Prior knowledge:
3-stranded antiparallel sheet
Amino acid sequence: MDYTCDSAAERVAEGLGFSCHDTNPWVSFRNPFGLENGTMPFLELLIIGGAVFALVHAWRRWRRDGDPVNISLWIASVVYLAVIEPPLYFPGWFGLEEHVGFIFSHNVFTVQFMYDRLPLYIVAFYPALSQLAYELVRALGVFARRGPLLGSVAVAFACQVFYEIFDHLGPQLKWWAWNPGNRMINQPALDSVPMNSMLLFASVSFGAMTYLVVRLTGNGRGTLTGPGVAWRSIVAGALTPLAMIIVSAPSGAFRGEDQLGIQRAILSAELAVVWIAGLYLLADAWRTHRAGAVPQMESPLFVRTYPALYLGVHVVLWLIALPAYFAATDGVTEQGTPIGSLWYAALCTAAATGFLLVALRATATQLTAEAVES
């Protein structure tokens, strides 16, 4: 069997407009203006630029402010990617065909790795989003007031709302495609997006990783050296998938097409917990800032610019996709691509806007205070 392009992978790749045969095992390059969808180079620029911005910000936080959490979270995100992604792309390599099967395939972007399975923008997506969510929550003062656990819960919620705006748009625009033949993992789904992905990849992974990073490096403010940050980051990234396995156990106990209703109910309840806890923490932060209890913010440029840019670009991309969305029949556009959930994406957009407004209020107040002191 060709473990890099089996029959399921071949079908999905053909649907996206490329072939998974005869691909480079290391890296390949394409014309950014010749990709399958005209939105793809803009997505790459947004995410890769965000990851670079996040790295500069994280380095500054560590070297200037003595806080290693940001740089550790950036590194842990890449380690987590290296641990979790290869088994998803090549389940046959890891003996997982019977357990998970072929789940999805990314489309080919400007820069691709690993037999064209891993786009560079996906490598960048994890550190960009983890830094976006962590900085928003830090700006709200949740970590300072509520501690690492509830701070990480708030990060899980922030990732949910920012991630799912992207997640429910991607299949329609051919950024990737889920394998419709894999009902074991890709069902139940909310329109085109598997609910397992919505819970585990969009919330649990980022929340668990943030908690591990904060616990491992947060007490080392100003004292950790490079090697100390490095091994703690590697441990946090490598252990993150364990949390995903634990949280997936309740719904996984009812695996089977005849029990999809039970799985849907369990996953919906778990997602509801993320929303309820996240909205409570967001509302609490809003009340705190209205009362005048403002946390100290260092280097607020990233949190004041990139989250808003990320959200704004995705809103524009959604507007571009809406005509085909509304013209879709039975959940499939005229171009043959599945649509996501507009109502859920709109709900996430509203919550993401709430995060931005509270964070901007917090950082604006702090900047005003700093200006007065100077």
